[in-house]
Structures are given as C-alpha cells and as structure tokens.
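Give me the 3D structure for Lrp/AsnC family transcriptional regulator.
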Amino acid sequence: MNVRLDEIDRKILAALQEDASLSLDEIARRVGSSKTPVWNRIRRLKEAGVILRQTAILDPEALGLEACFFVLVRTSEHEPDWQRKFLSAVRARPEVLEAHRLAGDIDYILKVRVANARAYDAFYQALISEVKIHNVTALLSMEEIKATTILAV
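Predicted structure for Lrp/AsnC family transcriptional regulator (153 residues):
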C-alpha cells in the first residue's frame, strides 16, 4: 500500500518514531500545526496502515537477555505443510524477535534474544523437536553496532 505523505505527515511520523508518548500538543508544536489537525493526520495514518502500532522499546540486557543469536536455517523441506509447521513454531517462540525467509543458500534467518548459551540451546532443542530442519548455524553477536526501529520518512 502506497500512501501519499506530505511534509507535515513526515514530521509527525518522525516525532512519533522518536517518542510515541509525546502529547498531541508537543507533536503539534514540533510540526508547526495545531492539535486537532495533528490528531486527524495520526488517525488517518493509522487507518491507512502507515502506523501499525505504538509500543515501548525495552532494554534486553536490563531484562537479563544478554545474548543475541542470528540463526541461519537451511531446510531440505519446501512443502506447504512443513512451512506452516515451521512458521507456527517460530511465531510461537518469544525468543524470536525477527524471522525472515531469504533468497540464496540460507532459507531463513532468525534473530533470537536469550539470557545465555544454555538458554539458546534450550530454544534450539525445542525448535528441532517441533520441526525437521536440515541445517542450523547459530552466530553469536559480540557487539550491537546499530539497532533502530526508526524508518527514514
């Protein structure tokens, strides 16, 4: 879906991405408008599916989730039943922050947040008990260089 955004829409989106808890008054001040038009624009952006949801971003390390693994999954199975089972298993695991189906040698990549290597192994054991996987490679992130949820608008 492609939505036409003007400069004020873009400023509103930038402000909300920076801090979704901003008051309408503060957003209006930042974009040079008044509260009611800003509220109407936000409502329109939500209805159009541009704003999917508003949420809080938590510090994983503060919650004891110090290990981030990127899990590369290769499968020899490509039937719809296998895919449904795999996607269901991945979606049900709270440790999986992101999952992508890829083009190329790797079929899927998962971003997994856990407390430590033992917790990753428990995740891995649970996943392979639910669905047959040909090959799994886990890469431990040593340092997060950049992480953002802010899209260029």
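The chain has two domains: 7-47, 61-140. Let me know if you want a second pass.
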